[in-house]
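2024-03-11 09:14:02 DEBUG pipeline.ingest accepted 1 chain
2024-03-11 09:14:02 DEBUG pipeline.ingest length=693
2024-03-11 09:14:03 DEBUG pipeline.predict start
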Amino acid sequence: MNILNTVAKATARKIYRINRRSPAISMCAALILSGSALSFAEAPKTDTEKDNTPEAEMVKLKAKQLRKERALSMARKKMNRNDVSIIASSDKKFSMSNKSISRYKVVGGDGDVVELAFDKDGNEVDAEALFQREQAMKKRKYGKFSHELYEKLKHVKDDALPVVISFRVRNKPHLSKPEKLTGQGKHSKKASAKALIDKRAQMMAKHTLKKRRKLLKLIKRSDPQAQMIGDTPNVVASLSKSQLKRLSRSKLIDHIALNSNNTPGLSSSRIDTLATIANVNLGLRGDGVQIAQIEVGGIVNEAHQDLPANRIVQGHSSACESTLVGHPSEVAGVMMSTNSVNEGLSNRATLWAGGRCDSNGNPDTTNATARTITTNAVNWGARVINVSSTFGTTGSVNTTDQFFDRIVFDNWRTHVTIAGNRATAACAGGATVNTTVGNRGYNGIIVGAYVEGGVLWGDESVWPCSQWEDPTSGDDDRQEPALLAPGVSITTTANTGNNFVTRNGTSYSAPHVSATAAIMMEADPDLEYWPERVKAIILASTIGLQGSVFPERMHETIGNGRLDALAAVNVARGVNGGNIGTSLSCGTHTSSNPLKITIPVGGVNRARVVVNFPTDPDYVDYFSRPSMDVDFRVRRKSDNFILGSSATWDNTYEIVDFVTPFADTYDIEIWAARCGSSTASQYIGVAWHEDDI
């Protein structure tokens, strides 16, 4: 980043943070920050933008500003009003067609939004048409192969390659989710939730059975050892280049990718300070909630006196923990430890410990094995799926991300996963890091790590080893991680004896969030089948670093703040906020006819509203962008004043923060800016949280 941009953006960040109560000043800062509050994406460099001299940078900045002014001018004409402002912008280069465009979402004073796009010369263009052209060019080049597999096939002979072959699930059966279950007491509600989830699983399995059998039969002609992964539309096999090319012609098959390996998100840097695991002081510990821990190998040390053996189910029987320095036992301790000092958040839950070893006692780390383990966990009844491993080597979503997104979208389970650890010299203490790319899926809760300081809620910092590189997407404006959780100097159960060890890594951040989700489900069993609400609640209740009551919003490294487990559980209980699950209809809910949810907010409070919506894993352009683009605004009912809008393109959650000088009711107005899902309506989760300033 050049000096001019650095200075401008640093100044804008300060202006934005200091003046959150002033919409006019904050909007000026937002304009400097490329039109989206705390969204720091740089414009892609085109062939004509290689000159990095200060003069050249000034020319580019001026051109960019002119495009923004043109967007505002055209929006005024289209809306027939002058009070317009940019709420989101994106600079995108289409690699296949070598076209560069700038996109804008412009909001008027009445809350309506228009979208505009311009090429580098300032001419208005059709962004959707350019996207579809790019997709068609990719399909002609890569066919049904993933980019990674396509490149590998160019350089290998006809040797067998491990692959995952899949098809899209079309015309999915519909089963309505009730917003609230009827019945007296938690036990009857839990029974009703279980029955609903089981019925959904049966419907999906029956819907895909015939096609799954046909696909497996087809592939077994080339590889008799090919196997189907549970009830999913995935088959794993080892096939040669010629066999793959022949199979790719089949109409049964939609996508073929490499079956690569995953790695634990573990680091072992030497940091002496200790940090105990946080606890929620409500008498809730996830009692009766089922959590699955997906591992790269090894079993949990259930002989440890502080791990409840009666509530730990081993997913296999082969021990290979020593290879992974006790990773399974250490992750389990964050959730399940009963030690009075180093206590797990959800130690009254039941834990299914996954992972698998090969015949030599070494970890079986293939992505296909991770899918099989997860399928077993889902069939066991897991409501929360904790993944402390990474599955990708590139910046875009892959087939394993797609698999876990399916667990959320089709199976209604909450998925929590790590952002991953960075391979960088910035990691303190000579850390051993494992990956440069974390998990990229849309529907899971992607968690980074922060360092707890010497003062609770006031002396924290982002762990420099925590992964924060954003996934690539259609408009390159996705922001991950979603939030941060404790991940440094975590004291947890060891894999030998009754010992405790102190570890660092995002491996230990994710189970903090998974445990919080389990406690939320104990407080409200309805959340067991509403992963959309769970994610919305957790993001709505985050808190800022350094004691700030204002959490970050879509920040490059921090995400949307750090986990506040107590606040999240309270919002699940309807204290200091609330949440709702509902359906958003494509084509019906538009900017001029939005879905409205009315909420009360007290006076002199900070409020955060989150709208979370999953991506359909069977969306035709899944590997390039989410299946829907959902935006929303918050309008005060007493005077019709709009307090804020959120409108990115590729994030699957939107966030509005605002300050309420007096108690009032507010309309959350939600609409679908783009619909690409295979369903006419889609479940969404909405949550709101308020704090005294």
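2024-03-11 09:14:41 DEBUG pipeline.report Confidence is low (pLDDT under 50) at residues 1-49, 267-280, 428-436.
2024-03-11 09:14:41 DEBUG pipeline.predict end
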